[in-house]
Amino acid sequence: MSMFISSLFLVLLALLSSCHAQKEATIQEIRLAFNKNRVNSRQLVEFYLGEIKKLNPVLKGVLEVNPDALYEADRADRERAAKVPRSMVGLHGIPVLLKDTIATKDKLNTTAGSFALLGSIVPRDAGIVSRLRQAGAVILGKASLSEWSSFRSLSAPSGFSPRAGQGKNPYVLSATPCGSSSGPAISVASNMVAVSIGTETDGSILCPASFNSVVGIKPTVGLTSRAGVIPISPSLDTVGPICRTVSDAAYVLDTIVGFDYNDGEATKKASRYIPLGGYTQFLKPDGLKGKRIGVIRNPFFAFSNGSNLPQVFENHLQTLRREGAILIDNLEIAGLDTILNVTASGEAVATIAEFKIAINAYLKSLVTSRVRSLVDIIAFNKKFGDLEMIDEFGQEIFLAAEATNGIGDLEKAAIANMATLTRDGYLKMMVENGLDAVVTPGSNISPALAIGGFPAISVPAAYDGEGVPVGICFSGLKWSEPTLIEISYGFEQATKVRKIPTFIP
Ligand SMILES: *[C@@H]1O[C@H](CO)[C@@H](O)[C@H](O)[C@H]1NC(C)=O
Ligand SMILES: *[C@@H]1O[C@H](CO)[C@@H](O)[C@H](O)[C@H]1NC(C)=O
Ligand SMILES: *[C@@H]1O[C@H](CO)[C@@H](O)[C@H](O)[C@H]1NC(C)=O
C-alpha cells in the first residue's frame, strides 16, 4: 500500500512540473491570452480535460465531464472571432465546474452524489446556470461533494459520495478535503478547471476553501439564486464561487448574482444591494486601508500545542495593520457557545424541517425521477445501500427530517431563537464596535454566519506542520460583499500565501 502511494506521489510530482504556464491561470490572464490570440477556449478546455484525465482518478474532484464542453468552447471561439460584445468580458469562454447539486438541463446529471437521482431529468437550468450560459461560460462538468451536501448522516466522511467515491485533499492526500463543496475546491486547487461554484448552508464553501488553499465566497443569502439547486434549507442556503484567487471569485460572483423569478422573494430583495458596475471594482490593492476589523480570538485562535499556526496568524494580524486596517482585538460574540452548538441554537431543528419541505418540492419539480420524495430516498438507500456501498454511513438526518411535520411551534421557536442569538451576538458586536468585518482562522465561525444569513470570504493563509492548508475568514453583515472583497484582496495581495498542491501522500 505505501509503495503504491509513494510511486503515485512520484507520478503526481512529475505531472506537476509539466504545463506550468496554464496552471494557476487567472480569468484576467486568460482574457488577455484570448485577446492576443495566444490561446482559445477550445485549447483551454482541452488542457483542463487532460488534467482531469491525469489527476482525477486519484483526487476524485470531478464527478462528470460535460460531453458538450468542446462544442461550447468552439461556439465561444466563434463568437470571439466575430467580436460579439459579450465575448470580450467576464466568463465568456471560461470553463466552469459546478457542484453536483446545481441543476443543468443538458447531458450532465444532477444528483447530489447519490445514485437515487442518477438519470433524473431536471425541468430547467438552475438560475445561476442560466446566467453562466448568458455570459458564454463553458460548463465543464459537475464536481463531487459530500453526498446530499452532508445532510444525510453525521457519520458520513467529508468529501465522500457513492457516485464519486472519496475526494482527496490535493495538498495532503490523507487529510480531509472538507465538505460539502469538496469537489469544487479540490478541482480548482489542483488546476483541473479555471473556476468553480459551490453551495453553503453552514460551512460548505468556507471549510473546503480553507482546507484546499483556495478562495471561497459565501454570499449573503439571496444574493445568488437557489432555484434549481438541490436544497437543504431555503432560509440558510446560498450559492457562491470557489476559485484560486479573490479576483477570479469576484468575476464569478459578478456573473451569478441577481434577480431570478424562480427564487423571487430572496433575490428580489437582494438585487437592490448589487453595486452598479459589479464586484470587480473592489479589487483594490489598498483595500485594507481604514477598515475596522474585529479579531475574535476565543475560541477561534486556539491551535494545538507546538503548531506553527499561532505565529502565522499573529503575523497576518500584523500584516493587516501594516496595510492600514484598524484591528479591534479580543472581541467576543455573546452566546457563542450556544451559536456554535447547532442543537442548542435551533439551527438543527429548523433545518431538518425546512429540508423535508424543500427536498420534496425539488423532487416533485423533476421531469422524471425514480425518487419523488424524502420517503423515496430513504427507501432507496435501504434497498440499494449495500449494493452501492452507501448504507455503511446510515441516514439518521434523513430519518429525523422525515419525522418532522412542517414549521410548527417547535420550529418557530427555533427560528426565533436563531434570530435572537444573531441580534444579541454577531450583529450587536459588529454595530457596537463599528466594524467593517471580522477576522478568524479556518471556518469554525460558520454557524454564526449561517444563522444570520451573513457573507464571508475564505482566503489561503497558511499550511500547518503537515502541509495541510488553512484559510483566513473575513466575515461581515448582510450585503457587505464589496467591503469583504476589498479586505480579502488586500490581504491576498499583501501575503500571496497560495502555492500549487504538493500531493503529499
Ligand atoms: C448521466 O447518467 C446516465 C445514467 O443514467 C449516464 O448514462 C450518462 O453518461 C451520465 N451523463 C454524463 C455526462 O456522465
Ligand atoms: C498545551 O499547553 C498548555 C499550556 O502550555 C497545557 O496546559 C496543555 O495541557 C497542553 N495541551 C496538550 C494537549 O498538550
Ligand atoms: C449542545 O446543546 C445540547 C442541547 O442544548 C446539549 O445537550 C449538548 O450537550 C450540547 N453540546 C455540547 C458539545 O455542548
Walk me through this protein's architecture:
This protein has helices at 2-17, 27-35, 41-59, 69-81, 127-135, 147-150, 182-189, 206-211, 246-256, 264-271, 309-322, 336-339, 342-345, 347-365, 374-384, 396-402, 409-432, 446-452, 481-495; strands at residues 62-65, 95-99, 138-143, 160-161, 165-166, 195-200, 215-218, 238-243, 292-295, 326-328, 437-441, 456-463, 469-475. It is of the alpha/beta class. A hairpin with a 3-residue loop joins strand 4 and strand 5. Helix 3 packs antiparallel against helix 4 (69-81). The radius of gyration is 21 Å and the shape is globular. The model is unreliable at 1-5 and 9-20 (pLDDT under 50). Bound molecules: 2-acetamido-2-deoxy-beta-D-glucopyranose (3 copies).
Keywords:
Amidase signature (AS) enzymes; single chain; two-stranded antiparallel ribbon; alpha/beta; 11-stranded mixed beta sheet; binds 2-acetamido-2-deoxy-beta-D-glucopyranose; disordered N terminus; 505 residues; 13 strands
